[in-house]
Amino acid sequence: MGCGTSIAVENQGKPSETDVSSRNPSPALTMKAAVLIQRWYRRYTARLEMRRRYTWNIFQSIEYAGEQDQLQLSGFFSFMLDNFTHLSGNGPDLISHLLDSVVEPWTEEGRQVKYEQITVPDSYTGPRLSFPLSVSDTNSLLSAFKEQQTLHARYVLQLLHETKKFLKQMPNVIYLSTSYAKEITICGDLHGRLDDLLLIFYKNGLPSAENPYVFNGDFVDRGKKSMEIVIILFAFLLLYPDHMHLNRGNHEDHIMNLRYGFTKEVMQKYKTHGRDILQVLQDVFSLLPVATVIDNKVLIVHGGISDKTDLDFLSSIERDKVKSALRLPKRSVEVVDPRGGSRSGRQGWAHLDSPCSRSRARKRKCHLSKQGSCSSTSSSSSSSSLCSPRLASRHTPQHHATSPVLPSPSDGLQVPFLDSFVSIAPPEPSREELEWRQIVDILWSDPKSQSGCTANSFRGGGCYFGPDVTRNLLEKHGMTLLIRSHECKQEGYELCHDGQVITIFSASNYYEEGSNRGAYVKLGPELVPRFLQYQVSRSTRKLTLQQRVSVAEGSALKALQEKLFAHRSELMAVFQQYDTNNTGCISVSDWAQVVESVLRLDLPWRTLRPRLTRLAHDGSVEYRSCFEDVSPGQPVPQVAPNLAETLYRYRTDLEIIFNIIDKDHSGLISIEEFRQTWKLFSTHLGVAVNEEAIDDMARSIDFNKDGSIDFTEFLEAFRVVHKLDVKDQQQG
Amino acid sequence: MADDKDNAEAILSEVHKKISDAFDLFDHEFNKTVDVREIGTIIRSLGCFPSEVELHDVITEAEDEEPMGYIRFERFLPVMTRVLMERKFRPITEDLLLQAFEVLDQQNKGYLEAEELTKYMTLEGEPFTQEEMEEMLSAALDPEKNVIAYKDFVSMMVIDDAQ
């Protein structure tokens, strides 16, 4: 049966092994040998392809699950803004104090520091910009950043103010022409990877009148040099306003930045003026144009389109009203303020009652009940939509007041009844909402190969648009090509919809060293796209496909192991429910089911199982083994295991909130602030937390005698290490 | 008897889930269809070693009467289940693989020249595409000596694959 056995049979009739003269196998035999090798090799590459595919899935699932956690965070801010909690008699309102300068820019000009008043010390050796900018300014910026220097806050603020002024007079959609230049270069996501930008400039030349560029959004977040990238891009924008164009991406959004690292980067690099810088950036981001059109034939947007996309409508919107895609426009409902103060006139939150249609065929399995409340809304179901942060939770769509955990009255924290907050659905979506949707669709949508347009529930925003949607829109406006970014592609670019859509992605090694190439595309007057690829690499040796897959896979599996660790108590509780005889083992099928429903990550668990757990002799899974490779980095302070895990899981969110509270960037917050923050957070999430346990823990961490907590130290305690890394280092 | 029946059902159920997992990995639209060009990868990732011809036969079975360029899960599942249960397309062992290389190594050198291997792989049997050939060479070729030490290559591949 098959080719496998035939060679063995044939070999029996061959000369013996001791015959040293050259053999002359028959052509038939040669062919059989060749086919065998080919079959084997194709199977080998198929396995590699499968590993590559699930590695990709892991990264993307965790990435998008993280983005939905982000919705939780913005839901948290919403919760606070809407419900007006305050500390009774304990100083100023923590919440508005908290949210004032970052989330809610109430007043514009008056509150911002005048950059002219900032003095630059003589000891500063970085670039000193002079406006209007000249080529020597951009050159000095490039060399400075190559030398790891930082631009002084004064110049940053000045640059940002000038950029803001400039962008205010730009339309939402920019129209370009190739007639005056040889080729226009279009770049995709950079995500703070300065090396990639420098590599592009090296290969393709700096922006100039002869060398125009379009950068298609997502300049910031994730990578460590987001600030440097925006400085360079804005500087070139001011220097060559007709030849340098920037489109807004979904990460040019202050709420996304809170979660994905840009806010943190700015606060760390600019301790004194970080907040001011972020304030102006918020405005600048919302003023970035949302689309670019070349020769009236090529449409360039960051995410994609929907069947509702209308370029004329899009052109008429006041784009800077949409500061963040994660903040819904206010409906015609007054937010009731129990204190009687007036809160009208702000762009408030609202809750849409009509969820976007869900079309994801894969349903989440929700039949396992949750043990404890650590699980609740954290890893939200990916069938949630952007429309309502509350819908992302598995509670009723109404409000969190029904959550089982409310602080006791003695804590002095008041949460007014939410029943008084009425959400009346007007029959038609408001104009604001339609405008918001236009922009969100442009920034968040993804193409798919089958027809139609459905809500992009995987990401939580925008749509999946099919080739018919593309064709219709392009035809309607007499265009031939849509260029977008937003999705990482292994080769840096990808065509779809019969060549009508190009995805261009410019951050190489996005997930991991070797995970993907970056690319840019050039368009000349004949509008035939030309792709250039590159890959930043630490080593000079080219990695084989197998090596690239292994490295990326290792990284993905580690991330997955951390997820398992973060949900350990819950997983163990359910495993033990299935393990009726207390053998420490359950069937593969049960294991996969439990993990999928607890982690809520739609991954091929059976395929992944061999990489995550051990099997017992009878083929069942030793479920404890999935936690073996990850352990706390330091001895965790004496706390209940549940608490440690919860803290580990929400490390990033807590860090963000701490950073916001810590207005003077000292790294310290008071015990009281810490306690109140934690209570708020846990209330919102419906997490049951023992007050005393938190207090004990706070006390057991070394803190300054003045009763403040070094929260960096506190969070360090909840870092994890991977056993294999430790072993490597020891062998090192 | 009842136990056996339960067992058989359990086994079948596991097989179905394995197939479903592999299928879903390539189902980009989340609507239980995959591009027909990815079926080979799916079948191979489930542990089968079909030749191109054998693959083509399986695809024909799983396609709709009017081939649409994609394969639906409802049709793929029974076909693939049978393939797995009947253990078609058995694995190729390390020994067999080594023997195959030895057959091609007509002069019994213990290694193959790059051109030799390329000639066989791209002209004989079910020929490689240029891309497949380049990939194999990048993994197999010793760049200094410009030869493929196939014994080492086979050992290495088998280890990689087994992980």
- pLDDT under 50 segments of chain A (min length 5)? 1-21, 83-108, 331-426
Instruction: Work out the strand percent of chain A.
Output: 5-15%
What is the arithmetic mean of pLDDT of chain A?
73
Q: Helicity of chain B, in percent? A: 55-70%
Strand proportion of chain B: 5-15%
User: CATH homologous superfamily name of the largest domain in chain B?
Assistant: EF-hand
Uncertain regions spanning at least 5 consecutive residues of chain B: none
Q: Quick one: how many beta strands of chain B?
A: 5
Task: Please give the order of strands in the largest beta sheet of chain B.
Answer: 3-5-4
Give the topology string of chain B: H per helix, E per strand.
HEHHEHHEHHEEH
Give the N-to-C terminal Cα separation of chain B. Answer: 38 Å
Please bin the fraction of helical residues of chain A.
40-55%
Major beta-sheet overview of chain B? 3 strands, antiparallel
Q: Over the alpha carbons, how many angstroms does the gyration radius of chain A reach?
A: 28 Å
Which structural class do you get from the secondary structure elements of chain A? alpha/beta
**Largest sheet features of chain A:** 6 strands, mixed
How many DSSP H or I helices of chain A? 23
Under CATH, the topology of the largest domain in chain B can be stated as Recoverin, domain 1
Structural class of chain B: mainly alpha
Catalytic activity (chain A): O-phospho-L-threonyl-[protein] + H2O = L-threonyl-[protein] + phosphate; O-phospho-L-seryl-[protein] + H2O = L-seryl-[protein] + phosphate
Protein name (chain A): Serine/threonine-protein phosphatase with EF-hands
InterPro entries (chain A): Calcineurin-like_PHP (IPR004843), EF_Hand_1_Ca_BS (IPR018247), EF_hand_dom (IPR002048), Metallo-depent_PP-like (IPR029052), PPP_dom (IPR013235), PPP_phosphatase (IPR051134), Ser/Thr-Pase_EF-hand_contain (IPR012008), Ser/Thr-sp_prot-phosphatase (IPR006186)
EC number (chain A): 3.1.3.16
